[in-house]
């Protein structure tokens, strides 16, 4: 808006791709920012079939899931770009960070075990570190989800006396866990250290400021603005790094 550009917002789900492609063709929309909130192989196949034949259209894939898909197959022009992170590599970086702080008992979301990089990481460190897994609870509110998670975490924490740290893949979920701990007379990081995910600015003002993996949204947004203004890029695929912002929830173990 500040640059004087006009824009439209369109639903880009698998069920609406055909209608969206016809709309783009009818109105000759030259540039499209695609936010693939959930990209599956069905999306990939439909996108390729419907959009490859649209002439003179450039695409900017925002927060592209490089860990799940090859962006080159979806970029149909020289001026199309995909920007995002590789979540598998980012999670591995998070786990290595937890180890570097000296924690010997890691509590991880069950979904991470599906990642081969995580499996290799566990195999390589199983002799010195204990790994336990909890399930993400599906409740009506974040607090209820946090309460259900705390029950699992407390059960897992009893298995060893080693220094414990949990990886929680949502800053607000981490806040819910900390609140439940406080109501039980426990605290973070004294009873359980936490490494979170998202990097929300608000997380620096939680009861215990979070140590969290920061999504590079500012870099992605600035890249999108440069793309809109027609600035040249040397790469069509930009895999950005996730930075870990130090708070007080994962201080490390004194040696």
Helix content: 25-40%
What is the global morphology? elongated
- DSSP E strands, number: 10
What structural class should be given to the helix and strand makeup?
alpha/beta
Fraction in beta strands:
15-25%
Euclidean distance between termini CA atoms: 53 Å
Strand order of the largest sheet: 5-4-6-7-8-10
What does the average pLDDT come to?
Answer: 87
Number of helical elements = 7
Major β-sheet annotation? 6 strands, mixed
Listing every helix as H and every strand as E from the N terminus to the C terminus, the arrangement reads HEHEEHEHEHEHEEHEE
| Low-pLDDT residue intervals, each spanning 5 or more residues | none
The radius of gyration computed from the alpha-carbon positions, rounded to a whole number of angstroms, is: 21 Å
Write a structural description:
With 255 residues, this protein is α/β, with parallel strands linked by helices. It is built from seven helices and ten strands. It has helices at residues 17-27, 41-51, 87-100, 116-125, 142-157, 171-183, 217-228, and strands at 31-34, 58-65, 81-85, 105-109, 130-134, 164-168, 193-198, 211-214, 237-239, 243-245. A six-stranded mixed sheet has the order 5-4-6-7-8-10, sandwiched between helices. A four-stranded parallel sheet has the order 1-2-3-9. β6, α6 (171-183) and β7 form a beta-alpha-beta unit. α5 (142-157) packs across α6. The mean pLDDT is 87.
């Amino acid at each position: 808006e500040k640059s004087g550009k006009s824009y439209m917002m369109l639903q880009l789900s698998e069920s609406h791709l055909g209608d969206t492609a016809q709309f783009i063709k009818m109105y000759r929309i030259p540039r499209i920012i695609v936010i693939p909130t959930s990209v599956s192989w069905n999306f990939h196949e439909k996108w390729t079939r419907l959009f490859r034949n649209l002439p003179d259209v450039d695409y900017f894939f925002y927060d592209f899931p490089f860990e799940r898909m090859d962006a080159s197959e979806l970029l149909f022009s020289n001026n199309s770009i995909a920007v995002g992170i590789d979540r598998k590599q980012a999670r591995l970086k998070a786990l290595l960070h937890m180890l570097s702080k000296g924690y010997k008992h890691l509590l991880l979301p069950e979904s991470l075990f599906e990642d081969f990089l995580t499996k290799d990481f566990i195999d390589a460190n199983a002799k010195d570190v204990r790994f336990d897994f909890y399930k993400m609870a599906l409740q009506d509110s974040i607090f209820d989800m946090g309460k259900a998670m705390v029950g699992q975490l407390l059960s897992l924490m009893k298995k060893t006396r080693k220094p414990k740290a949990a990886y929680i893949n949502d800053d607000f979920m981490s806040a819910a866990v900390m609140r439940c701990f406080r109501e039980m007379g426990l605290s973070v990081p004294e009873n359980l250290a936490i490494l979170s995910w998202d990097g929300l600015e608000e997380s620096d003002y939680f009861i215990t400021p979070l140590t969290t993996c920061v999504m590079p949204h500012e870099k992605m947004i600035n890249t999108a603005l440069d793309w809109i203004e027609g600035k040249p890029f040397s790469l069509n695929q930009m895999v950005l790094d996730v930075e870990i912002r130090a708070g007080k929830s994962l201080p490390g173990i004194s040696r």
